Amino acid sequence: MHKNGPVALIFHILVLTFVLAPLVIICLVAFTPENTLSLPTAGLSLRWFEAVFAHPDFVASFWNSIWLATLSATLAVVFAVPAGLAISRYTFPGRDFLNALFLSPLIIPHLVLGVAFLRLFALIGATGSFAWLVATHIIIVTPYVLRLVLAALSGLDRSAEQAARTLGAGEWTTFRRVTAPMILPGITGGWLLAFINSFDELTMSIFVTSPATVTLPVRMYMYATESIDPMMAAVSALMIAITAVAMLVLDRAFGLDRILVGQR
């Protein structure tokens, strides 16, 4: 087995420090008892977390983000699974175009998408609608689900499906009882990645939210333009915690290596 040398180990440590240091610092600042952004040198305090939960705008925006991310991720799975089955198993005119179309939001800047959606909604009179906000998030999170579904289908042994069809099972029964359980890690991993990306989305959401549908990242941006205090650090720490818990659940349930890398 090849082992990393000291230079590689030092490089890895530097990269991890560079990535994790800002997260650790913002989480520490969230526990400061002071009124300014500073490390808690005089003890830890939960006052800014209490301030977050006592702030009605932040609470409302949090629930907006939860519902938005849940609906967007779920509907993205509804679209991505049949699309993945069609792309991976059938040859038809426009197959490559369809695949590129579904994955295109990964390479289009969200700023461009936000401006485009803002103009579209203004033309059709759909501004301020939560349903249209969900639609925009479905578009940007579907590629994450589709990529993992395609990866799961690419390594799938179809002998079990063929055996089920030979024994008289219909297409829907075969999918429900055989195919879906076999690609469940890809579906679940895609759903969680879609949920996280929808929950954290800011750049595009700024253009398509209304006062009644402001999401938590947009609320944080609006608050930061007016004042900066440790309450922003507390909200950031909560978002980091939610993301970390989601990834931990995903790792414990299926394994991140299996879902993101494809290891079995």
From TrEMBL:
Where are the annotated coiled coils located?
none
Spell out where the chain crosses the membrane: 7-31, 66-88, 100-124, 130-153, 174-196, 231-250
Please provide the Gene Ontology terms (biological process) for this protein.
Answer: transmembrane transport
> What does the UniProt keyword field contain?
Cell inner membrane, Cell membrane, Membrane, Transmembrane, Transmembrane helix, Transport
Instruction: Name any one Pfam family assigned in the record.
Output: BPD_transp_1
The segment(s) forming the ABC transmembrane type-1 domain are 62-250
Q: Mind telling me which CDD domains this protein's record contains?
A: TM_PBP2 (cd06261)
Membrane topology qualifier: Multi-pass membrane protein
Enumerate the subcellular locations listed in this protein's record, separating them with semicolons: Cell inner membrane; Cell membrane
Any one of the GO CC terms? plasma membrane
PANTHER family of this UniProt entry? INNER MEMBRANE ABC TRANSPORTER PERMEASE PROTEIN YDCV
Protein family per UniProt: Belongs to the binding-protein-dependent transport system permease family.
Protein name in the entry: ABC transporter permease subunit
The species this protein belongs to is Microvirga makkahensis
